[in-house]
Write a structure and sequence with these properties.
The chain is mainly beta and 54 residues long. Helix content is 0%, strand content 20%.
Amino acid sequence: MKTYQCAVCGFVYHETKGMPNEGIPAGTRWEDVPDTWVCPDCGVCRADFEMVEI
């Protein structure tokens, strides 16, 4: 499982945690997050996220 970070605001998406409050269950891989999903903090599209090691 990987972690992705918004290049604009720094919001972090953890594949292991998902975002259940956004309808994305724990264990959802980044490639399975809908293309229409946007950063909950700043509103940029998922293309503006980068994979990071934490």
